[in-house]
Design a protein that fits this description.
By secondary structure, the chain is α+β, with helices and mostly antiparallel strands. It has helices at residues 3-19, 30-38, 89-103, 119-126, and strands at residues 42-47, 62-69, 72-80, 108-114, 129-139, 145-154. Strand 2 (62-69) and strand 3 form a beta hairpin. The longest helix has 17 residues, at 3-19. The chain binds coenzyme A (COA). Coenzyme A (COA) is lined by residues 19-20, 77-80, 85-91, 113, 117-119, 121-122, 125.
Length: 164
């Protein structure tokens, strides 16, 4: 793993610690991120507070992590540090994901989210639509169970819907 990659994982983890509320138990630890990136089919994007790809010596305000599958790209994590929210950084990262995933041959994006996460407003505004539910799929740190919703977004051809 090169120095740039290690620096980038530091940046991802710094955002991870601020963006994900421990009550939901959704944050990944460093080992999980390293293992995902070591597989070779996972990709990340780091965004600066100004909404640009992060520079070498700059802290990130947000990140996305995704996994490439056959004609599909699954968004695994998307996080923005609270102080930089509602400045379109999440939306900009979805735009970047769409471009990158298209270049990797994806025809649709997928994601799974806990029911009730306000991130749904961002996703539906982008063009994601629900395709399935998994009852009681997530177990919270307090033992409570929450349903998961799977969303898809078509990103090529006539079905492209993200026109907002
Ligand atoms: C979800 C998240 C990534 C959104 O990032 P963000 O940079 O604030 O999102 P944007 O500014 O790009 O939002 C674009 C639009 O999406 C909608 N939106 C985003 N967050 C919203 C929220 N909390 N409530 C309602 N609508 C929301 C709005 O329409 C918003 O436009 P507006 O600000 O002009 O109203 C961020 O809130 C976050 O890190 N949450 C915690 C981690 C998480 O749950 N991630 C998703 C599951 S992995």
């Amino acid at each position: 793993m090169g120095t740039r990659m290690i620096d980038d994982i530091d940046r991802i983890m710094a955002v991870m610690q601020t963006a994900f509320d421990p009550a939901w138990g959704e944050a990944w630890n460093r080992r999980q991120v390293e293992d995902a990136l070591a597989l070779g089919n996972c990709h990340y994007f780091l965004i600066s507070p100004q909404g640009l790809p992060v520079g070498e010596d700059e802290d990130a305000a947000g990140f996305s992590l995704s996994r490439t599958g056959y004609e599909e790209e699954e968004l695994l994590l998307l996080g923005v540090t609270p102080e930089y929210r509602r400045k379109k950084l999440g939306r900009t990262m979805l735009d970047a994901l769409q471009l990158a995933a298209t270049s990797r041959g994806a025809k649709r994006l997928l994601l799974e989210m806990r029911k009730g996460n306000p991130a749904e407003f961002l996703y539906s505004g982008f063009g994601f639509y629900p395709i399935g539910e998994r009852k009681d799929y997530y177990r919270l740190p307090n033992g409570e169970r929450i349903d998961a919703i799977t969303f898809a977004c078509d990103i090529c051809g006539e079905n492209t819907v993200n026109l907002t």
